[in-house]
Amino acid sequence: MSQAKKLSIAFYWHMHQPVYQLSPTGDYLMPWVRLHAIKDYLDMALIINKFKNIKLNFNLVPVLMDSLIDYGENGLHDIHSRLTVTDVKDLNNDDKEFIINNFFDANFHSMILPNEEYNRLYQKYQSNTENSIDIFSPQEYSDLMALFNLAWFDPIYKNMYPDLKKLIKKGKNYTLEDRIKIIDIQRDIIRQIIPTYKKLIKKGKIEITTSPYYHPILPILLDIKSIKISHNSDLPTNLKMALDAKMQTQKALDRMEELFGVRPKGIWPSEQCINSKVMDMFKELGIEWTISDEGILSDSIKFEFIRDFRGYLEDPYHLLKSYDYKGTKIIFRDSVIPNLIGFEYPNHSPEGAANDLYDRIKAIQSKLLTSPDGNHLLTIAMDGENCWENYTADGSTFLSTIYSLIENDPTLETVLISDYIEKDTQKPLNKLSSGSWVNRNFKLWIDEPLKNLAWTYLKQVRDDFCAYVKQNPFNPNIEAARQELFICEGSDWFWWYGEPNDSGRDNIFDYIFREHLKNIYLYLGIEVPEYLDIPLLSAITKPSRYPKGEFTPILDGKEHDDENWLNAGCIKIPDGPVLDEDKFYDKICFGYDKDNLYLRFYINEYNKNSASTSKRVNQMYVYMRNQNKKQYLSPIRIIQTNEKLLPISKEKFHNEMQISIYNGEINLVRLVSAISNNLWVIASPKNIKAVYDKVVDLSIPFDDIEIDKGDTLEFLFVNANYGIKDYFVPNEMLLTIKRM
To answer: What whole-number distance in Å separates Cα of residue 722 and Cα of residue 496?
Structure first.
């Protein structure tokens, strides 16, 4: 049997959180830096001490490091932690409402359900249909705050902190002193993070890289004109932010060298977004290497990586090489393994998942026997903080198992990326395609109406900043204002704005973004434009148009140019973050005459001729109520897998209509009505009509849904295949039609 060729593996964990403050010394509005610090940042590095030969790579974004210093050294709070150390006697009604709505923000199965008291409080909260703050006693409020904070600790700390172990074992009846102790332990963990990484760097166990300071999308800042976009009219023609991109990258390198004593050799471009201008800038700044995604390599070398039904690569050779692009080295990550670790493996036993990953690594290695080269690098690069709460023991069992399997295999090794690149001979890369890790384009951050509006706001504010600086170059607050500008260039604002992503806290992100834009004017001492007081979210889900008036369309399911539908209101369903084929409908149009509500659902082009999707059940729900009349109202009864519920999901309605498509036919149209006690009952509609051929046409008599003349109908759509919520349309407002 042929001897297996040595395979090097680079585990590369990316750690990042955006700015959650309104000012450099103010409270954080969200707790995620603090909570991930006690759940991920330290233990992800400490685990390496269990292994003699394992080496790891970490990408640390400077803004995250600054936030950790704020918590650990400067004693700053977020809203959650400040409430946690507040005596329950001093909580006002707003505080209690905030606690009820935010202190269950944890994975139910791994963090709430295993704790008897936390689960009891959660079930009590779930049954609180009236949203009353009196549902909990003062002691229960105290316990809820304690249990929320305790649930976020990685299990490793129970043995490191005896007091923490006692607090976890206590289970309930927590005192103010207990809660203060919990936050003190959290701060102590946070203070250890940077020193621990420094020690591991000196030991040669880890390599640290960084990203531009506030995590901006570099290709957009450097040259927006080169981005392939469809909403050209919505965007500035030129952002003129190339200098900002360079300054943010330089500033990041300087800050990391200051904190860790070593200047990073590599850069993880935000969201692995690259193009030729980014590479030119990296070379100018002396950066030795960078990373991007498999899809970018595929486009660059015109080689499509083919996988079988289990995701195994037919030919991994090109993906396992390092490349040279005009003097700067570049590696490309495997794109399937991060998805397995992030989304699939948490559903299995951690030992079984680790063994599956090991088998995949060995399958890749087995295909190198005919390779002409001696060095091969499998890059496993991904978010290092957001998936572990879905695992047993916060992922420690999975990581320990896979690291152990690799360490005990003499034909495998883990490497520091810079060390590997130094010994390897790079393949020349003559062409570099532009794109990101998502769909090989930039559509998660641009080319959507609301995202484009955010870029327009940013461009206008930056123009005002530059004009002021030109006239007043000696204002001592210019650098503070510039920092606010850099914050607003971060990728996270544009990721959460618009479609398709939903943070569950989009209104908070919108508020923080606009406040930082305002801060630029405040630092410079000039008047803040009024438009910055208007939430961008007010435009988030407005339909492209409302009905121009009454019309009675032909209902035949044909996609012909019925001029009546030209008068309809329309709302486009945005693309999903990964696959267009997951979206059954592209657009919904709606209208009315004196007797009926009319709906038309346009089928996604991918699905029209796809045999694979025709066998899938595709369900759309329409929720309706009368704005003018008192009716029984019941809650939306769709299963929602996202713990962070949209505010609109808590609205109640009088009618629910379900339209189900299967195997190219309508197999169900059902109307139900609300009754007392938040229940639903099947209604008996008289004249509802549904037709499906190329489109789905639907007419609903106003009388069947109790909308009288002069009444206003409020409604929204929920796509929910198999009864599990995919998305709301719209997701921030209700559509309205007035029956004339």
So the answer is: 26
Task: State the Cα–Cα distance between residues 655 and 314, nearest whole angstrom.
Answer: 51
Burial class (CB within 10 angstroms; exposed 0-12, middle 13-18, buried 19+) of 189: buried
Burial label, 173 (beta-carbon count in 10 A; 0-12, 13-18, 19+): exposed
At which residue do the structure tokens 């860790």 appear? 260
The span from the CA of 449 to the CA of 490, in Å, is 18
Predicted pLDDT of residue 542: 53
Nearest 10 degrees: Cα torsion 469, 472, 475, 479: 10
Residue with token string 């409270």 = 27
Pick from 674, 672, 622, 671: nearest CA to 652 = 674
What pLDDT sits at residue 693?
86
Question: Which of 569, 541, 571 lies closest to 732, judged by CA?
Answer: 541
Closest CA to 40 of 152, 150, 146: 152
The pLDDT score that the predictor gives to residue 113 is: 92
Contacts of 153 (CB under 8 A, 6+ apart): 38, 39, 164, 168, 186
Q: CA angle 307-312-314, nearest 5°?
A: 60
Q: What's the confidence (pLDDT) of residue 583?
A: 61
- CA dist 562 and 553 (Å) reads 7
DSSP 283-314: HHTT--EEEEEHHHHHHHHT----B-TT--BS
Question: Tokens representing 455?
Answer: 């870029």
How far apart are the C-alpha atoms of 727 and 367, rounded to whole Å?
41
> Rounded to the nearest 5°, which phi and psi values hold at 669?
-130, 115
242-260 vs 276-284: helix crossing angle, rounded to 10: 50
SS3 helix, strand, coil % of the chain, rounded to 5?
45, 20, 35
pTM given for the model: 0.75
Sign of CA dihedral 236, 242, 245, 251: negative
Q: Rounded distance, CA 674 to CA 685, Å?
A: 14
Q: Residues 6 or more apart from 448 whose CB is under 8 A from it?
A: 231, 497, 498, 499, 574
Could you list the mean pLDDT of each consecutive 10-residue stretch along the chain, which spans 740 residues?
Answer: 83 96 93 97 97 98 98 96 98 94 91 94 86 92 98 95 96 98 98 98 98 97 84 73 97 98 98 96 98 96 90 94 97 95 93 97 94 95 93 94 98 98 96 92 87 91 96 96 97 86 78 96 94 73 70 84 76 53 74 93 67 62 91 80 56 90 83 89 85 91 93 87 63 80
d(CA 563, CA 558): 13
Quick one: pLDDT at residue 549? 85
- What's residue 538's pLDDT? 61
Q: CA 96 to CA 326: how far, in whole Å? A: 58
CA distance 71 to 37: 10
Can you list the alpha helix ranges (DSSP code H) found in 408-448? Answer: 417-423
Please tell me whether residue 128 adopts helix, strand or coil conformation: coil
How many angstroms separate the most distant Cα atoms in the chain? 83
- Comparing CA positions, the residue from 259, 256, 430 lying closest to residue 268 is 256
Q: What are the E-state strand segments in 161-310?
A: 206-209, 266-267, 289-293
Q: Are 61 and 15 in contact (CB under 8 A)?
A: yes
Residue corresponding to tokens 């009196």: 134
- Geometric angle at alpha carbon 339, from 334 and 343, rounded to 5°: 165
With tokens 């692009």, the residue in question is 325
pLDDT at residue 231 in the model? 53
| DSSP codes of every residue in 457-508 | HHHHHHHHHHHHHHH-TT-TTHHHHHHHHHHHTBHHHHHHSSSS---S-HHH
